[in-house]
Amino acid sequence: AGEAPYYPRSRPNILITGTPGTGKTTTSEMAAEATGLKHINVGDLVKAKGLHEGLDTEYDSYILDEDKLIDEMEDFMRPGGNMVDFHTCEIFPERWFDLVIVLRTDNNILYPRLEGRGYNAKKINENMECEIMQVVLEDARESYAEEIVIELQSNSVEQMEENVSRIKAWVDNWMENNQE
Ligand code: DAT
Description:
180 residues; 7 strands; alpha/beta; binds 2'-deoxyadenosine-5'-diphosphate; 5-stranded parallel sheet; globular; Rossmann fold; single chain
């Protein structure tokens, strides 16, 4: 297969990833509002457009059709300007993203968040283990250039606000450095 062509972007694409419950959707919505980038909730997109192969009843989650998802996203990712929110990061083409944020939450804070969502015990345990083993962080470091992957703590509202400010500052800086 040939190398994918590189398209210069007028605005950056940011990936907000992390274990479920770490605050991706809340942070992405606030950061999208602050930066003018578009919040793309990939889980919602998968459901709305049927980009899956049905429900995994054991974990009560959809089985992704990755090829369909990438095809669906390519057109709006190419020009940039997206704040992409998803718990998995290694399925996307590396060239899509200018910044990858991995949100992290302490065990004693994450557990009640997941319980509060009404997840079954199996799903809670699976997600707790994912966070403890830093699965998403390691996947991000394997899938993207080291210098674009940033780990941010997301335990409190104060930290979330700080994270949004950092993302906003990063976008402002990118825009300044990427003007034609
Ligand atoms: P995710 O999209 O990663 O699954 P979410 O944004 O839906 O997570 O957040 C899950 C719940 O936890 C939601 O009720 C908001 C709350 N929450 C998330 N991040 C938080 C933070 N940094 N401080 C306090 N509450 C937070």
